[in-house]
Amino acid sequence: MCGIIGYVGGKPAVPFLLEGLRRMEYRGYDSAGVAVLHDGALGDCRAAGKIARLEAALNTTPVTGSCGIGHTRWATHGPPVERNAHPHRSQDGTVAVVHNGIIENANALRVLLQGKGYQFRSDTDTEVVAHLVQELMNGSLEEAVLAALREVEGTYGLAIVSSRDPGKIVAARKGSPLLVGIGDGEHFLASDASAILAHTRQVVYLHDGDVAVIEAGGYRVLDASAAPRTPKVDRIEWDQAAIERGGYPHFMLKEIFEQPQTVENTMRGRLIVEDGTSKLGGLNLSHEQLMAIDNVIITACGTSWHSALIGEMMIEEWCRLPVEVEYASEFRYKNPIVGPNTLCIVISQSGETADTLAAMREAKRRGARTLGLVNVVGSTIAREDDGGVYLHAGPEIGVASTKAFTSQVVALALFALKLARKRGMSVTRGMEIARALHALPAQIQDVLDRSEQVEHIAEEFKRAPNFLYLGRGANFPVALEGALKLKEISYIHAEGYPAAEMKHGPIALIDEMMPVVFVAPHDAVFDKVVSNIQEVKARKGTVIAITSRGEPALDGLVDYEFRIPETVDLLMPVLASVPLQLLAYYIAVKRGSNVDQPRNLAKSVTVE
Ligand code: M6R
Questions:
Q1: pLDDT in tens, 242-296
Q2: How far is the CA of 306 from the centre of ligand 1 (A)?
Q3: Domain ranges of the chain
Q4: C-beta separation of 405 from 278 below 8 A
Q5: Residues 586, 455: contact at Cβ < 8 Å?
Q6: Can you name the CATH fold of 3-236?
């Protein structure tokens, strides 16, 4: 997804801007550009493709100056070509704009501006902002930006510079994250903290409606009514090393191998094994409010939606409360039934996914209490929810989510366990689940220690054009997640299905060319899954089974087997998902894919 960077201070801006853009590469992008003020004039450079191409273009036509903005674009309006790359310039060239988000009334504004003689050079919605600021520039840049924003509908993170008011960057936020970094005689702007972490840890997260004026010697934040606001300065605690690869060939592999630690971190100080419960400080729900919950809605996208399906089973099974799981993109436009005692759980690694944020706001608007399960500290969802459980999985850089998923499942288990114990689960059952949770980090390590077995299976199947993933109960979402991982990074077509549903359609696909991954640990439905495996074998399908122990029932039935340790049924997904992450990873590497930045995908989907 698009990234914004800005610098104003005493040093050359371009090296800083390029470094910041590189640190945001993991978000996914298809073109990049910078604009820099120098001696009252604006210079810019843009290139389609990777940042290396922008750097090459800058070597040929350098731009200099110590106040500038930069951008990585992930195409929404118009193809990823140079003319659509940001920054966009106004007609007279005095204004340059970079933008994340979508200007929804861009077409109407374009017609209006064309009527005034403005000519458009790109297909983007962003270009209207550059012309609009030029049109309204009558004094300071911030006044012109505030006036322009009154005309604009949609979502934005904006950074704007102008040669008519040099030495400053004006930033604006509505629905797309931006933060100001505070330095000594220099200030920074970024859409992602990782871009500026090497230079400062003191940051101000902008709120929706904020406009910030950033200069070398200071910064000001104005609210939507242009009144100055005294912002809170936060300190970023993340370690820079934590967002670098640490010796692994890819972030994704590093993140897969971090899971014993990240799952441990999710539980640290929260799991109380001896009482069979958990302690979650940020819930902001009193005992009475927890007891009064009538129903739960869980909303999320992608991998986070898969963890929601597992959370649904935990809350229904352990707490005996009705739960609905909704795709955030669907929920936001439905007419959902939300009562005063509805709890809406919102799951997001990034805390910035546009659909998930909108779904949370909709649930709030309708009177639900919201609980965010979020990884990125200080993200929008984390700031706007009524209560929250941070995942503490650390920065996830690989576009394919891995460690966030296992931490989400564990965080859901901690919450469901606490709620269940309050609502009548026995201490004995609670302790059984708590002990199982406590054992997970070592069990994940056991799976990882045998990763070469999965690599061997990947070698056998790296050329397969299709895959089917099947599971039942809590392992059906694991099948969905396994299929999603494979298709995201290897571009192999893969489908996840409930194992018994196979015979209602997908069974037609099965022949000797179709690898079928069964998520079949020894749980309450194991015998049923064995029957489903037999159905596949009868049609000459090749079976790869993720199972939990040597089972006579599987002898001669499966072609490849990977065993995971045993745990309680609803925690199996934490262990079963790890070999599937590894399978997707090794197949993708063997096919030569760009594992950390797969084509067309963005780490954080901040547009609708
Ligand atoms: O940051 P979020 O958890 O809200 O992101 C939701 C999805 O965009 C994300 O899980 C996506 O599906 C990943 N690429 C999956 O690997």
A1: 666 766 889 999 999 999 999 998 998 899 999 999 999 899 999 999 999 999 9
A2: 10
A3: 3-236, 246-445, 451-590
A4: no
A5: yes
A6: Glutamine Phosphoribosylpyrophosphate, subunit 1, domain 1 (3.60.20)
Residue 344 among the catalytic residues: no
Ligand 1 atom closest to the Cα of residue 376 is 1
- 219 neighbors 172 (Cβ within 8 angstroms): no
> Per-residue pLDDT tens for 547-595?
987 778 888 889 999 999 999 999 999 999 999 999 999 999 999 999 9
Q: Average pLDDT for residues 227-234, to the nearest whole number?
A: 93
Concatenated DSSP letters of 11-42: S-HHHHHHHHHHHTGGG--SEEEEEEEETTEE
Alpha carbon of 323 to ligand 1 centroid (Å): 21
What are the tokens at 200? 């400062």
Residue 112 C-alpha to ligand 1 middle, in angstroms?
Answer: 37
Cα distances from 192 to residues 189, 268, 391, 404, in angstroms, run 9, 26, 18, 18
Mutate to test the pocket of ligand 1, among 353, 389, 484, 600 (most ligand atoms within 8 A of CB): 353
Q: What is the DSSP string of 396-417?
A: --SSS--HHHHHHHHHHHHHHH
pTM here is 0.75
Q: Which atom of ligand 1 is nearest to the CA of 350?
A: 1
Residues in a beta bridge with 371:
345, 387
> Any catalytic annotation for residue 537?
no
The answer to whether 172 and 210 are in contact (CB under 8 A) is yes
- Comparing 3-236 with 451-590, is the CATH topology the same? no
Which residues form the pocket of ligand 1, taking CB atoms under 6 Å from any ligand atom?
Answer: 301-304, 348-350, 353, 356, 399-401, 488, 601, 604-605
First-to-last CA distance in the chain? 12
Q: Which residues pair with 603 in a beta bridge?
A: none
Beta bridge partners of 44: 35
- Please name the fold of domain 451-590: Rossmann fold (3.40.50)
Beta bridge pairs of residue 22: none
Domain 246-445 has CATH 3.50.50.60: no
Alpha helices in 61-140 (DSSP H): 106-115, 127-136
The CA-atom distances, in angstroms, between 542 and each of 403, 452, 534, 555 are 29, 20, 11, 14
DSSP reduced 3-state for 606: coil
Indicate which residue's Cα is closest to atom 12 of ligand 1. 302
Task: Report the nearest atom of ligand 1 relative to the CA of 400.
Answer: 16
